[in-house]
Amino acid sequence: MGLLFFCGAFSGYRALTMAAPLREKLIALTEPLLGQLGYELVDLEYAPGRARALLRIFIDRPEGVGLDDCERVSHEISALFDVEDPVSTGYTLEVSSPGLDRVLRTPEHFQRFVGERIRLELRIARDGRRRYTGRLEALNAEGIELNVDGAMVSVSFAEIGRARLAPLWS
């Protein structure tokens, strides 16, 4: 069976989660390779299945990502995973652009999008609230400052479960 790759955006797609050790292992394997190829690892998702699991890798670069980029990265990651064998079951690999509502996973991601509208979910509710949407005003070594309906909210990186851009659709 040949390699399967996909290039596109998953707008509004509910994030798939995986065990933290597997996620960290996959990030540790793919991030250096993508950097050498001139791409950034935006995020990855893993969904186990009955017959095959699904592994989605979201990539970006300053000039954007096209089908040829997804194909190239798919081939390179497949070759790496053939050697390293990080997933113990059969899986389908999909490589995609991050979309307009891209995930913000690292401090560098947040820095790049200061001034933009974001949506985040806390790992643990604060004062009964887990979800915040507002303008990303600033960040420091510990976390971010978010303007939510005129009120400033400070959130540490450790508190953030998921965060993504939240563009206003016209």
Summarize the structure in words.
The longest helix is centred in the N-terminal third of the chain and has 18 residues, at 20-37. The chain has a five-stranded antiparallel sheet with strand order 7-6-5-4-8. Strands 1-2-3 form a three-stranded mixed sheet. α1 packs across α2. The protein has two domains: 20-96, RimP-like superfamily, N-terminal (GMP Synthetase, Chain A, domain 3, 2-Layer Sandwich), CATH 3.30.300.70; 107-165, SH3 type barrels (Roll). By secondary structure, the chain is of the alpha+beta class. Helix content is 25%, strand content 36%. The radius of gyration is 17 Å and the shape is globular. It has helices at 20-37, 67-84, 107-112; strands at residues 40-47, 53-60, 91-96, 117-126, 129-139, 143-148, 151-156, 160-165. The protein has three helices and eight strands, in the order αββαβαβββββ.
Key phrases:
3-stranded mixed sheet, alpha+beta, 5-stranded antiparallel sheet, disordered N terminus, 36% strand, SH3 type barrels, 2 domains, globular, 170 residues, single chain, GMP Synthetase, Chain A, domain 3
Give a short synopsis of this structure.
The chain is built from three helices and eight strands. It is α+β, with helices and mostly antiparallel strands. It has a five-stranded antiparallel β-sheet.
- CATH-level-4 superfamily name of the largest domain: RimP-like superfamily, N-terminal
* Total domain modules: 2
Rg (C-alpha, Å): 17 Å
What CATH calls the topology of the largest domain is GMP Synthetase, Chain A, domain 3
* Strand composition percent: 35-45%
- Structure annotation, total helices: 3
Shape: globular
Q: Give the N-to-C terminal Cα separation.
A: 42 Å
Q: Point out poorly predicted stretches.
A: 1-18
Q: Give the strand line-up of the largest sheet.
A: 7-6-5-4-8
- Going by CATH, the architecture of the largest domain would be 2-Layer Sandwich
